């Protein structure tokens, strides 16, 4: 005896959500069908719309419903200061501190040779192109404060050969080994303010 | 600064899942859009299909894609022994023990005067009707072993006035205050085997 085919299909599909194991997928499916059918219908539509209509910003690569996101389209932002992040969720976290008025570049991850993720997969070529073409004066590397994030930051720093571009790393106010997305706004604002210039590995 | 409208809509919609707060809804939405678009599309379809096509069995009220569920339609089951449950998930748990060959009645919850949930909302009238019309010899009350489940079991027991119907309650092998759905199969099988006849409150 097991669940009916459609119920089993729903339970399996819910497993794609991060942190959802077999037991919680089962609870979620039954909860929706027993008590939240209207919400389940709404969730199905929201998923469908999001997947079909949310793409990424051509300029900074964050998630965006328009070809150019609101931040890149905002003329009041300081376009000479660029903050490099691993994920759109980190962009939101930085924006919520209210302490940054520059622009962004979202890498979508970090270098991971073991998984075959190299500079091209992260769009580092496009990043370097923007640094030159937009006359960036400061590049703040705000990848995660863990081994992979540090390695990615140092790799990018090593590519910048223009002495007029200040390359900085957010200060270690953020907990080492943690993930930016879980850091509170105050710590994050502090880490941004205390950023330091990185020593160039390649001069 | 906040998320784009469609992304915000998805994050809000994910909150309908049990145990999902604002932070995990955000992580889920971004995870799906950044890395699991195909799975998200699949989940949208699974939700849609489940909501449209899964109804309930006319006889036992468990979730079913057909008017009569597989168990009620199975002629090899002992139709004179009926097990009363609070939820379809409990039915699956009992079936998985392999120790029960009778039929079921799913109440979908428990009596809760404070929430305005009375006997009619649980279909107790239909249950009593089945007890008579199907010549049930034993009614096993397997509502949750907590205060509400006990009250519901005693309410039902008090309605059965036919001395030929044995009314039993699953044994307290199940942890008091717990929920059936989280009990392991062995304990559940033991609890079923050790069921005792309930004293009648009304004779
Ligand atoms: Zn942008
Ligand atoms: Zn049935």
Automatic annotation (TrEMBL), chains A, B:
A zinc finger (C4-type) spans 57-72. GO terms for biological process: DNA recombination; DNA repair. SMART domains: TOPRIM. InterPro entries: DNA_Rcmb_RecR, Rcmb_RecR, Rcmb_RecR_Znf, TOPRIM_dom, TOPRIM_RecR. GO terms for molecular function: DNA binding; zinc ion binding. Keywords: DNA damage, DNA recombination, DNA repair, Metal-binding, Zinc, Zinc-finger. It holds the Pfam family RecR_C. Residues 80-175 form the Toprim domain. Belongs to the RecR family. May play a role in DNA repair. It seems to be involved in an RecBC-independent recombinational process of DNA repair. It may act with RecF and RecO. This is Recombination protein RecR. The gene is recR.
